[in-house]
Amino acid sequence: MGQIISPQKKTITQIKHKILQPALTSHFQCQFIIPSEVGKQLGYNDLTANSELDDTLTISCTDASLPGTSLATHELNNDFTGITQRNAYRRLYDDRAQFTFYVDQNYIQIRVFEIWMRYITGEQLSFGESNNVAYRANFAKNYKTTLYLTKFERDLKNYMSYTFVNAFPIQIDSMPVSYDSSQLLKCNVSFSYDRYVLSNPKASSTLIGDQPPKQSSTTGIANPIGAGTQAELNQINSDIA
Predict the structure, then answer these.
(1) What is the mean pLDDT of each run of 10 residues along the chain (241 residues)?
(2) Domain definitions of the chain by residue range
(3) Where does the chain show beta strands of DSSP type E?
(4) Are 167 and 97 in contact (CB under 8 A)?
(5) N or C of the chain: less Cβ packing under 10 Å?
(6) If one looks up domain 23-202 in CATH, what number appears?
(7) Opening angle at CA 232, ends 229 and 237, nearest 5
């Protein structure tokens, strides 16, 4: 059992170092990579034009959410009287990622995601406004992509990046318009994704640790984070540093 820590005095320097350097929500960047097949539907047949479209979405993204995660657990009710224990067996990811875009006068942001979703379902435009419309969904590999969300601070020294794997737009929220005082038109888009990967290329060594964990005399677990070899652990620590 750990030792109870008695109340301690903190100096102004310690307080400033610990809590007076908070992260701010206004410093982030999203990168959207339009799948090549979707780019063709948008009329972009070369990588340069497609890259310019990616950059337009990156700059116009005004709101995003860092993803959440949780653990699925089993309940144990009979091992100890009156005690309910839980053991984790699987990691769960949020089913959607939310992004908000400023819409320009050419409505590029709206057109991109409308056409992207139209391509996903294989909607046939030849039917026009007919009551009979044919759909034939395209292969997932052709419309899924990778999204990147990077959180950083003003000094650009520390940052972390979220990589969303196999992402695609699943919902476009309604966008009210009105004769009231004019406001900026925004497009809210929800993306579905399989999972995300968090990378910390500038993580502090004091937070992560430069040395691989040593074997515990009580548990006998040499590497709690996995069964990697010493070389793999050294490589991980090298990448973090």
Answers:
(1) 78 81 89 89 71 87 94 90 91 93 94 93 72 84 94 87 95 94 95 91 46 38 39 47 43
(2) 23-202, 205-241
(3) 28-32, 61-64, 69-76, 85-93, 97-102, 145-152, 159-172, 186-192, 195-199
(4) yes
(5) N
(6) 2.30.110
(7) 125
